[in-house]
Design brief:
Layout lengths: L1 H18 L4 H4 L6 E3 L4 E3 L2 E3 L11 E7 H4 L14 H10 L3 E7 L6
Parallel strand pairs: 4-5
Antiparallel strand pairs: 1-2, 2-3
Length: 110
């Protein structure tokens, strides 16, 4: 029974090592290769999810609109709750900010 547990722990550890995402610390100050396969961005051959954000301190806020949140079914639109784009634009206007909207997300083919 102990052997099975040891094998499980070893396989789990090896799986983590092989599939763990690459971080910037892994490539800092060295040349690295960025590519894309049919599933993900790859850095030095390792599939990696890039997560980013920006805070702008001037007079404009730039943000992404995840369109697949607003149109989950063909021609059925949702702008309520956390998808309330009008409220976001009003809040930015109240704060005296310009808004630069970018669309992002799946464009569905129904």
């Amino acid at each position: 029974m102990h052997w099975l547990l040891l094998i499980y722990v070893c396989l789990s550890f090896l799986t983590y090592i092989v599939t763990s995402p690459i971080t910037y610390e892994n490539v800092r100050d060295t040349p690295y290769n960025v590519s894309y396969d049919h599933r993900a961005v790859k850095i030095n051959g390792v599939r990696t999810m890039l997560i980013s954000g920006a805070i702008h301190c001037l007079n404009t806020i730039q943000t992404l609109i995840f369109w697949n949140l607003h149109e989950q079914k063909a021609n059925v639109f949702n702008f309520s709750g956390r998808a309330n784009l009008s409220q976001f634009l009003q809040d930015a206007d109240d704060a005296g900010l310009f808004v630069n909207l970018l669309t992002y997300g799946s464009i569905y083919m129904w």
